[in-house]
């Protein structure tokens, strides 16, 4: 068991980042801290994709004459690059909305925001 843990560094980091990211998204009441937790969770998923795509002894899929038989698929790397762009965009929109919420209501705490919105009668409790 110890040998398995010492050889799978990326998977251990993946599990730790997922746990920390989920905890931050669930336990924190501050919107910015929830965004930080979301970024940690996204980073864990990126790490998992890259670690899962690793092939021992593999080479790039450009096939020269006399190349080895084992190749690495470029698809997980392309998916991760696309996901990074989407994650950065999501973070930018989330931070912009956080600034707007703070300027409108003066707080970033979710519980306080719910109370303010309920007092103004803008949301039904159904």
Tell me about this structure.
This protein has 126 residues and is mostly helical. Helices cover 71% and strands 0% of the residues. The chain is built from 5 helices and no strands. It starts with a helix and ends in a 7-residue tail after the last helix.
Name the descriptors.
single chain, 126 residues, mainly alpha
Summed up, the helix count is 5
For the report, how would you describe the main beta sheet? Answer: none
Assign the structural class, choosing from mainly alpha, mainly beta, alpha/beta, alpha+beta, or little secondary structure. mainly alpha
Number of strands: 0
Overall geometric form: elongated
Mean pLDDT: 86
Looking at how many chains there are and whether they match, the oligomeric state comes to single chain
Could you give the distance between the termini?
Answer: 50 Å
What low-confidence regions span 5 or more consecutive residues with pLDDT below 50? none
Proportion in β-strands: under 5%
Q: Helix amount, in percent?
A: over 70%
Q: Mind telling me the C-alpha Rg?
A: 21 Å
Order of helices and strands: HHHHH
């Amino acid at each position: 068991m110890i040998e398995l843990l010492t050889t799978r560094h990326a998977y251990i980091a993946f599990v730790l980042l997922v746990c920390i990211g989920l905890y931050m998204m669930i336990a924190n009441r501050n919107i910015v801290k929830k965004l930080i937790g979301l970024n940690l969770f996204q980073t864990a998923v990126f790490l998992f994709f890259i670690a899962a795509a690793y092939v021992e002894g593999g080479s790039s899929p450009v096939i020269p004459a006399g190349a080895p038989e084992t190749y690495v698929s470029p698809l997980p790397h392309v998916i991760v690059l696309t996901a990074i762009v989407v994650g950065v965009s999501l973070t930018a929109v989330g931070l912009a909305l956080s600034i707007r919420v703070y300027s409108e209501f003066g707080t970033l705490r979710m519980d306080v925001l719910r109370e303010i919105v309920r007092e103004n009668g803008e949301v039904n409790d159904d």
